[in-house]
Amino acid sequence: MTRTLVFALLSATVHAELPSAAIRPVPRTILAVYDGRLHKDPRDTRIHRLLEMPLNHLGLVVRYCDRNAGLPPVASLRDVRGIVTWFQTDSMERPEEFLTWAESAIDAGKRFVAVGGLSAGKDLRGRVTPTSAVNHFLAKLGLRTENWTPVTYDQRVVYKDPAVMDFERPLPAVLPPFDRMRPIDPRVRSHLIVRRGTDASTDSHLVVTGPHGGWVADGYTHFASYRQDQSQWYVNPFEFLRLAFATDDVPKLDTTTLSGRRIYYSHIDGDGWRNMTEVPAYRREKSSSAEVILREAIEPFGDLPVTVGPIVGDIDPAWFGTHESLDLARRILSVPWVEAGSHTYSHPLDWESLCQASQGPGATANGRTWLEGVLEWLDPAKWTTLNRVIERYSRPEAAEGKAALRRGHSQLRSYNLYPFDLNQEIAGSIDFLNLLLPRGKRVELLQWSGTTMVPEEVLQAVHRARVRNINGGDTRFDAEFDSYAWVAPLGRQAGALRQVYSSDSNENTYTNLWNERYFGFRYLPATLLHTETPIRVKPFNLYFHMYSGEKEASLRAVIENLRYARSQELSPIAASRYSAIVDGFHEAGIVELGPRRWRIDDRGELDTVRFDHADGEAVDFAASRGVVGQRHFQGSLYVALDAAERAPVVALTAAGAVPPTVPPYLIESRWQISRLRAAAAGFEFEARGFGPGEMAWRVAPNAAYVVSVAGDGPRESLRVTATPPGVLEFTIRQSAIEPVSIRAVPAGRAQ
């Protein structure tokens, strides 16, 4: 009987013996209740801007609910772990109704976290809410409010929990005014206590957590400058939210790591495709910025995949394209390590206003649809007639007013040659680009343009086109933006759908919107470092535009960042794969099968689950299924799941309880590993990835193996020996953009 069969039978037996009462879904949704009177879009709320990223890191999905649109029945919140509020006014419509609903939620087992006060002090007509009603709710959190303290000169801090307070910045010398709060439940844990003089009876507990949630007084979360261009946390949001929502028993579906390594992905938006470069080596050739990026930042870096999204208006001869720009698009998108994306057709700058003002699909002047025209001129036999095609498609410029412009742009689209058509922007740009691609490739990603504030109807168009989406967020964490407050969450909710944010900002924010300091993108590594240590909260994302090929300084900055990526321990993937991982994070379900044992369902392409504060824990491989490896890092245990297993089971045990006969497992790899199985006293698996196949496995100490590789390239074989601790390291040199099969056989048994 093979070792694989033994483990499968053990897993099936353990699963079959579990009583149904021991199997329960792990709720991981946080319902964010906000005030739509103040913020029309959840993206503008403090919950989204400041709290959602730490909640995502803790493995939690945030779903938004406008308090004014009606509160959901508590019975419908089966997947909800808790509720968070961060209101910015002192009033709301029907506050007592809200407090009653919140009490019912706590009674139903939902944790409630109130950040910055309750906003339930009075209704919109100024009628004061009875203190008894407020205290009746607060009693559920183990608290009681007694009075408002507007003058604080005689107040002093008598206790600060170092794990929660003074995270990025100490509290100001003159404390903000506060509601005096005191605990009435001994299980409540205080993290900040303020006292008037030396009288302990005046103590106010301003940051607390307890068995039913948490509370942070208004003004005690973070510092923000008057213009909101500086922010730093007083409270450690990771630790506070961990305690308030009791997330230690939640396996963290992780979007930063693959095969034990930090994820790397890169994408280029097509802006500046046709710009003539000023780079001295290419200026005499009158090369475009896109040509320079191809030759300097794409072709020399075959180990680092990149997704390129042209603006179709730059390459369509019916718009502003030329034979040269079109041919360059074909060349770039045919590079094996380049993934095809779309940066839309006309590069919308203000999606909200465009969608509100659009009057339906556009058509060509002679009544034929734009796609029929595209198909005609793309016939290679007719390339010599491109100029006549341009003339045929010439139409009056589209008239688009500016009265409805929002969020800072001076026009609605970069190219408004023809009327706006949402179908053309999404499906049309994708269909156009697909016609340029070599066999086996298709457009995989829609890269948002302009404000990136896309309404739900635009996301629906992307969903219908069967591609992923990305952009927005603009994460920075450097000397200019020195706080986790500037690190964006995974994406934003738009109706029933979600927009995926890029993980790092692009060179546009480093160059004052491409107006100065063209070398600024060289400061990206500061953000990459701060989002990796002391905790890994983001993957490595290199995101820029084609106009970086216009200036010598900007081109050097991109190349420096590419070289920096080569110096790091990374697992490179395509940008659409990262977007799919984020989708998997939001869609997955976790089922607890028993003590320290879980099944992961519907995770899509997400293949890492993380356990924090887990130095003393390890995977119990005998009780797990679909696990290829594990790695301890920063006090967390990262578990690599097998992409071929759709419902993996992860079981943990004490690190010292792992038997010495555990089968070989992956520690870390540049390539993704799947279909791991025992074979002839060794092991075999499939792998795919970019660049050299560096990997490390845990095997028996000093064991010698012959590793053979079979794929599209020539067969490769190498002999390697594990270290005394049992680490087997080797590197496969052949390409694995297409999957390869790898087999490791004990040296004495190799043929």
Average pLDDT over all residues: 90
Indicate the CATH topology of the largest domain.
7-stranded beta/alpha barrel
Uncertain regions spanning at least 5 consecutive residues: 1-17, 359-371, 381-398
SS-derived structural category: alpha/beta
β-strand number: 39
Strand order of the largest sheet: 3-2-4-5-11-10-9-7
% residues in beta strands: 25-35%
Number of domains: 3
Number of helices: 17
CATH architecture of the largest domain: Alpha-Beta Barrel
* Rg, Å, rounded: 28 Å
The residue fraction in helices comes out at 10-25%
- The coarse silhouette is globular
CATH level-1 class of the largest domain: Alpha Beta
The first-to-last residue Cα distance is 22 Å
Structure report:
With 751 residues, this protein is of the alpha/beta class. It folds into 3 domains: 3-9 and 591-749, no CATH class; 27-249, Rossmann fold; 257-359 and 422-580, 7-stranded beta/alpha barrel, CATH 3.20.110.20. Helix content is 22%, strand content 28%. Strands 3-2-4-5-11-10-9-7 form an 8-stranded mixed sheet, with helices on both faces. α2 (46-57) crosses α5, α10 (370-377) packs parallel to α12 (422-434) and α12 runs parallel beside α13 (456-464).
Brief synopsis:
The protein is an alpha/beta fold and 751 residues long.
